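Translate sequence into structure tokens.
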Amino acid sequence: MTATPAHMARCQPSTKGAAVAQGWSLEELATRANLSQSSLSRIENGQRRLALDQLVVLARALDTTLDQLVENADDDVVVSPMVDGAHGLMRWPVKGDPGMSVVRQRLTAPPPDSPARMRAHPGREWLVVLSGTAVLMLGHRRYRVETNQAAEFPTMTPHAIGAEGGPCEILGIFDRDARRGHQRDTGDRAEGGGPRGA
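Result follows.
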């Protein structure tokens, strides 16, 4: 199978940019990809078609994935959120890792104080407080997270997050497993910006 002209055009800037990022010359990249320097130059200029197996070899030589090699700045750069108004959530997918999600949420209630009212599930979470003060409960431990501070934790520890002293807004990044835990949780949580347990 040979790459189409559109695919060739899409991989041209990524090939050159990836080589520069590695600190390699075209000659070094050509050697690593088992291509002649003139062939690589013609590929970058759109004067030569590239077979799929050659794209794979080129991606390996650049220590990148085939998807990353052929993506370019014309792909969706700006992504609009999916809004869950019932739960006060805005969710953005992370294109480079479809299993990850970015979530923005406004919290108004404090977190539960008992681990029995918190959830644990597989995965990892990272969050930053955009405004206000959040309280992160990890089992019996209580962490105060203020504006512009971040927290990262494994989600197998019973945990919940809520607001302290007024509303707070957080931005969270969840891996696939943590996101699934939160998707189950949104069905159980009361409306109105209550504490977020997972």
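Note: The first strand starts at residue 82 and ends at 84.
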